[in-house]
Amino acid sequence: MCNVCEGIGEEVGNWFDKNIRRVVGDGRETFFWYDKWVGDTPLRFKFPRLFELALEKESTMESM
User: For the segment 6-50, what is each residue's pLDDT rounded down to a tens digit?
Assistant: First the structure.
């Protein structure tokens, strides 16, 4: 894990810097579908069909 940030390893590059966007912590202030907590796009746009089917669209990470 320590070497990921330095780009050591096969096809790792700057994976850590490019993908870690938010400290979720206890999850009370991070919304599962609306916040950019994985990558550059909220999950509601990456997985529109799942978002459409979700019963609780306003869920936080804590509740999920």
Answer: 555 555 556 666 666 566 678 888 899 999 887 788 999 999 999
* Distance in angstroms (rounded) separating the CA atoms of residues 28 and 22: 13
- Residue 33: the pLDDT is 94
Domain that holds residue 44: 23-64
Least Cα distance to 16 among 2, 28, 30, 32 occurs for 2
> Is the residue at 63 inside a domain?
yes
What letter represents residue 52's amino acid? E
What is d(CA 31, CA 60) in angstroms, rounded to the nearest whole number? 4
Q: For residue 17, what are the contacts with CB-CB under 8 A and spacing of at least 6?
A: 5
Domain count, the chain: 1
pTM for this model (two decimals): 0.60
